[in-house]
Write a structure and sequence with these properties.
about 500 residues; alpha+beta; OB fold (Dihydrolipoamide Acetyltransferase, E2P); Dihydrolipoamide Transferase; 7-stranded mixed β-sheet; 4-stranded antiparallel β-sheet; 11 helices; elongated
Length: about 500
């Protein structure tokens, strides 16, 4: 009994394709859904999976042939009918002699996280690894997770390459026992031809045709197909890039305006990280859901700056933490939230949930994007405890070590754009919270005090709030209370 392999549907208005590459040859064993060949149309590249398991019996359409939709490409015979199958299976006993193997699985990702993207492999197949040595890094929509080696040995197989999306129970790689180390040197001869400029994979026929017509050296084209195979679009990109270079070089001497280079050749397309995708989705959802409004005020930072200057050395000596302005703002916000509790509330269906505690979110920029670690029960903490917590969370955020739990449950958020030089902005709510305070750059400005123009260190404050549960009066009152506490920090001690 045999199974036919036919050309799949190629897409609207596409009626034919070229067989670019066969990954299997007659006699090879194939598994269900294993890739058999690659077809190339004028728009896309299509991979053809095996419709059934068995042995490749016959290839009807060879590489380079043009085939129509539903055309017969090959036939697969059942395993028992193949005479060449035992030959392919012969090396199996050798693999069994390499010793025990250990599977590398996706670690626990955190509550409600079901998948991750493999961002970086630190080891490659054939490398010796020690127990607990970092093998790879996974990226979820909130945090990065490092995957250590569960045992010592040799990395014999990588099942999830960089860029692959894996679920929470997926196998990432296999580590062989110490006997497997002998397999590593065997890979060296295979790599030798590549080092000398040769390639052990066939480029797509259409790509080879264009390279021959244009006189392009195949070694100069970076392939994007399977195993580095050069595809038609790779050659077209190389042609465009080559055309752009002479135009740019000739521009200074040309008596007329130079012809613009192909913009596509000067662009770089990078897939968004899962964290950036989540940031984009959450911020847009916030705009679409909340009735967001922003109110502004300004604060004279003279008193807070003077108090900090007077006590910062003594504070650091006693508490081992640097005295910054974030503790002043956190304290001021906690104080104001007690008076205007709706800013610390959230909507749940048709209910308003008032929080009788303050879990303060402190927005922090990291190399991979914005995260918001949460300082729990900030309203019960001292200046020193707040500064220590912010410093510790900030470092963990920059190092990508924050856990899911550390970024959940916030009731209000502070975002400090001033550290980047921002003078004014409208922060976006962090759902389901109803308020976020934006801090900005402290800048000397002329202001009127007691009828006199004086120079004072001023900062603009911005409170974005959900107008569905926070009225304008409440929002303005909150911001005024923060302003008053910062302009006279003694009010915090007196609970005024």
């Amino acid at each position: 009994m045999s199974t036919e392999v036919r050309v799949p549907t190629l897409g609207e208005s596409v009626t034919e394709a070229t067989v670019a590459t066969w990954f299997k040859k007659p006699g090879d064993a194939v598994a269900v859904d294993e890739m058999l060949c690659e077809l190339e149309t004028d728009k896309v590249t299509v991979e053809v999976p095996a419709p059934a398991a068995g042995t490749m019996a016959e290839i009807v359409a060879a590489e380079g042939e043009t085939v129509g939709v539903d055309a017969l490409l090959a036939t697969i015979s059942a395993g028992g009918e193949a005479t060449a199958a035992p030959v392919a299976a012969a090396p199996a006993p050798a693999a069994a002699d390499t010793g025990a193997t250990t599977d590398v699985m996706v670690p626990t990702l955190g509550e409600s996280v079901t998948e991750a993207t493999v961002s970086t492999w630190f080891k490659k197949v054939g490398d010796t690894v020690a127990q607990d040595e970092m093998l790879c890094e996974l990226e979820t929509d909130k945090v990065s997770v490092e995957v250590p080696a569960p045992a010592a040995g040799v990395l014999s197989e990588i099942l999830a390459p960089e860029g692959a999306t894996v679920d929470a129970t997926a196998k990432l790689a296999v580590i062989g026992g110490s006997a497997g180390a002998a397999a590593a040197p065997a890979a060296a001869p295979a790599a030798a031809p590549a080092a000398s400029g040769a390639k052990d994979v066939e480029d797509a026929p259409s790509a080879k045709k264009i390279m021959a017509e244009k006189g392009i050296d195949p070694a100069s084209v970076q392939g994007s197909g399977r195993d580095g195979r050069v595809m038609k679009e790779d050659v077209m990109a190389a042609v465009a890039s080559a055309a752009a270079a002479p135009a740019a070089a000739a521009a200074p001497a040309a008596p007329r305006a130079p012809v613009p280079a192909d913009d596509a050749a000067r662009e770089e397309r990078v897939k968004m990280t899962r964290l950036r995708q989540t940031i984009a989705k959450r911020l847009k959802d916030s705009q679409n859901t909340a009735a967001m409004l922003t109110t502004y005020n300004e604060v004279d930072m003279s008193a807070s700056m003077a108090l900090r200057k007077e006590y910062k050395d003594l504070f650091e000596k006693k508490h081992g933490a640097r005295l910054g302005f974030m503790s002043f703002f956190t304290k001021a916000c906690c104080h104001a939230l007690k008076e205007v509790p709706e800013v610390n509330a959230e909507i749940d269906g048709t209910d308003i949930v008032y929080k009788k505690f303050v879990h303060m979110g402190i927005a922090a920029g990291t190399p991979t994007g914005l995260v918001v670690p949460v300082i729990r029960d900030a309203d019960q903490m001292s200046f020193a405890e707040i500064e220590k917590a912010i410093a510790e969370k900030g470092k963990r955020a920059r190092d990508g070590k924050l856990s899911m739990a550390e970024m959940q449950g916030g009731t209000f958020t502070i975002s400090n754009g001033g550290v980047y030089g921002s003078l004014m902005s409208s922060p976006i709510l962090n759902p389901p919270q109803s308020g976020i305070l934006g801090m900005h750059k402290i800048q000397d400005r002329p202001v009127v005090v007691d009828g006199q123009i004086v120079i004072r260190p001023m900062m603009y404050l911005a409170l974005s709030y959900d107008h569905r549960i926070v009225d304008g009066k409440g929002a303005v009152t909150f911001l005024v209370r923060v302003k008053e506490a910062l302009e006279d920090p003694r009010r915090l001690l007196m609970d005024l």
